Recover the amino acids of this structure.
């Protein structure tokens, strides 16, 4: 018997019995979700707007972005200001996108994460290759904890999805925070409704 086999045999012989996982009850606060979401999101560099509908979103975005800049969105509500995103297009063709506008399915107030499934972006690269990202989330789709978000996601069959929180950033360069390090330089979150 080799040394390796002796070690593995000793580990197997001293393996403890399996124990059931404990029931973890996380206290959940239902009030103040939007305020908490805003505080956390703005603390990590995002801009948060509460709006009544897409008309307000368009108005706010038009104030920051020129029509000559490349704006993309798979959302039909933005067809008058953004080009559509088709699934079959070469992802490299999006290298010059200034602004992408997408919709999240779930928002999490404790960490400001937004769940964006593949079906909401048509191209996986869109939220990461653009210079600026705008994400719409319905007010009633913001939950208190990530645990609750995962329980909602677990009930649906997604091919791909991503949690996004804040603009891209790094703080490892001379101890300075750099936004837009390896993705969007800014994130605008529009809480709709």
């Amino acid at each position: 018997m080799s040394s390796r086999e002796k070690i593995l045999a000793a580990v197997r012989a001293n393996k403890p019995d399996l124990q059931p996982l404990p029931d973890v009850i996380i206290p959940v606060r239902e009030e103040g979700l939007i305020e908490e979401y805003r505080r956390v999101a703005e603390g990590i560099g995002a801009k948060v707007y509460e709006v009544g509908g897409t008309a307000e979103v368009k108005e706010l975005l038009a104030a920051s972005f020129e029509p000559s800049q490349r704006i993309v969105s798979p959302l039909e509500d933005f067809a008058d200001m953004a080009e559509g995103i088709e699934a079959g297009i070469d992802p490299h063709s999006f290298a010059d996108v200034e602004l992408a506008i997408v919709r999240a399915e779930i928002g999490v107030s404790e960490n400001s994460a937004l769940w964006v499934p593949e079906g909401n972006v048509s191209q996986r690269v869109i939220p990461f290759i653009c210079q600026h990202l705008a994400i719409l989330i319905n007010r009633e789709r913001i939950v208190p904890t990530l645990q609750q978000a995962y329980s909602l996601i677990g009930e649906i069959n997604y091919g791909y999805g991503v949690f996004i929180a804040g603009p891209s950033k790094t703080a490892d360069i001379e101890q300075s925070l750099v936004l837009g390090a390896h993705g969007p330089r800014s994130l605008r979150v529009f809480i709709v409704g």
